[in-house]
């Protein structure tokens, strides 16, 4: 089952044309990712300041299907999928209250040792998180 994050588009998310600035869509997706970690009882302070592992984003992509404006209510459905013992991806589906898909995004993450910058296996808390929110019906 995917994780769903609800949000209202804010003025700060938009550009001079009044639509969501393209890079802010990834920031909004990252908010959904962080909230899914939080809901899964992963301590965000410990997670993002961990000395044993880091999980940087190594790829990101967004497809826009319709503009988003200040005041729009959106939901972000998050579909994580483990790719190998060190790597996972998250597919995001941004939808309206009427269930219309207005954007899709993907981020790919890799687990590394923060000191040596070498790949390492995902920690058990991330395996648990992946299993909690994974769905075989991916976008």
From TrEMBL:
Molecular function terms from GO: 1,4-dihydroxy-2-naphthoyl-CoA thioesterase activity; fatty acyl-CoA hydrolase activity
Pathway involvement of the protein, from the record: Cofactor biosynthesis; phylloquinone biosynthesis; Quinol/quinone metabolism; 1,4-dihydroxy-2-naphthoate biosynthesis; 1,4-dihydroxy-2-naphthoate from chorismate: step 7/7
Catalytic activity: 1,4-dihydroxy-2-naphthoyl-CoA + H2O = 1,4-dihydroxy-2-naphthoate + CoA + H(+)
Keywords annotated in UniProt: Hydrolase
Highest taxon of source: Bacteria
GO biological process: phylloquinone biosynthetic process
Active site: 15
Record-linked SUPFAM superfamilies: Thioesterase/thiol ester dehydrase-isomerase
EC number: 3.1.2.28
Role this protein plays: Catalyzes the hydrolysis of 1,4-dihydroxy-2-naphthoyl-CoA (DHNA-CoA) to 1,4-dihydroxy-2-naphthoate (DHNA), a reaction involved in phylloquinone (vitamin K1) biosynthesis.
Family in the record: Belongs to the 4-hydroxybenzoyl-CoA thioesterase family. DHNA-CoA hydrolase subfamily.
Protein name listed in UniProt: 1,4-dihydroxy-2-naphthoyl-CoA hydrolase
